Amino acid sequence: MNILFLPSWYESDSEKNAGVFFTEQAMALQKMGNKVTIAIVDILNYPYKSNKPKFKIFKEERHGIEVYRMIVPSYMTGHMPSVFFSYYAKYYRKLMKYMLEQGLSFDVMYAHSFWHAGYIATLLKKELKLPLIVQEHRSMLITGEFSNKVNKYLRATIVNSDCFYCVSNKLRENVYSRTGLSEGIGILPNMVDDLFQYRQINNDRFTYTFIGTLNENKRIIQLLRCFEQVRKNNNTVCLKVAGDGPLREQVNEVINNSDFLSKSVELLGLLPRDKVADLLAESNVLVLPSAFETFGVVCIEAMAVGRPVICTRNGAVDFIDDSNGILIDVDSDDQLIEALEKMYRDYPVYNQQVISEKCVKAYSSTSVMSAVLSEMNRLMSKAVAG
């Protein structure tokens, strides 16, 4: 099967971890015997600087997959959705024309997130006469960062695609609310990469781990505050923090101003995927106290390695229960402290191998991508018959 893969953002030389779950999906689909070609018009925001030429089509190969892309400055069009989509659709059409002139052909389109590739894919669908699957990932639909002005484009993406998925129930509920639709949206979770498999713990101290962007949403400062209280009563525990972001300096300051934290918290910075897997193997538990998540990929990565999680009721609750973790309310210091202490105290009750097996069965690349391929084949058969 020839799959035209349209992500709304994608890894580049300067942003190697951007859209890592898109990369992993594309690689999984190709590994399963399909030909995947990625097409993306990158949104370049102010100050519109790029290491590659703007408005030019270039081809590159990433992980054995062909990527055709253009880099196009936004010029503030994002504040005007109708102008934004018209503007970027023009460059997607140029990109598609070029790709077709190179002799490429496709059986199906697979787009990710309505803003911007998903909606534009519905326009291309009419011109290319290809079935279209769209998967929605955007947390901004939950946080309110997208105004209601975008809702009609979200609705149009759902109505005009052949199949529309959200990655979680919480996101689907929000999409229903924004669009006024009451049906027609499925659930297709993010997948866990094959890199994350069961591994025995390799550490000499009970280790809590945080992996994520150091920003307000992730509640990293709250985690440090609560961990400090736990550490005061237990000098055998430590916390490892992987990630970077706008609160990095504040995180450093909080750690350095505390005798307890400075001796027990390790800042690791942004890690490549293989190092994330190694970090989880060295950890006892993942802690994710976010205000919101559209899915929480890092949780299933931890569980695939066999580690239980402490997570807030933030949208990533579809797969967390008493057998694999502890759920707490957002912004509750008392509950977070209690969960940290309970995890240490009751840790032997978690069967790490079972946690891994259940997670891999539900969220492995084979499981999730087989569902996608099944739907693609159904749509292709329907198109031939119709």
Number of strands: 14
How big is the Rg? Answer: 22 Å
Give unreliable regions as ranges: none
DSSP strand (E) fraction? 15-25%
Number of helices: 14
CATH class of the largest domain: Alpha Beta
Enter the CATH topology name of the largest domain: Rossmann fold
Mean pLDDT reading? 95
Outline the structure in words.
The structure is a single chain. With 386 residues, the chain is of the alpha/beta class. The chain has 2 domains: 2-191 and 364-385, Rossmann fold (3-Layer(aba) Sandwich), CATH 3.40.50.2000; 206-362, Glycogen Phosphorylase B (Rossmann fold). 42% of the residues lie in helices and 19% in strands. It contains 14 helices and 14 strands. The strands form 2 sheets. An 8-stranded mixed beta sheet has the order 3-4-2-1-5-6-7-8, sandwiched between helices. It has a 6-stranded parallel beta sheet with strand order 11-10-9-12-13-14, with helices on both faces. Helix 1 (20-31) packs across helix 14. The mean pLDDT is 95.
